[in-house]
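#struct-help
A.M.: can someone run this one for me? Single chain, 48 residues.
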Amino acid sequence: MQQQKTVIIAGFGGVGKTTLAKKYKNVLDLESTPYKYVVLRNIILFDI
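D.P.: on it. Structure tokens below:
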């Protein structure tokens, strides 16, 4: 059985992430707006 590789593509709005997902059936377009981050004393804390 051949192992599949996973690739995460992140980019700003309007660069074509959704267009890519519409063109290829094996690509998922996930909503990322619920994610945010907080910088505290030079440490980035992620909050979901």
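A.M.: thanks! The CA atoms of residues 14 and 20 lie 12 Å apart.
D.P.: also worth noting: The chain has one domain: 1-48.
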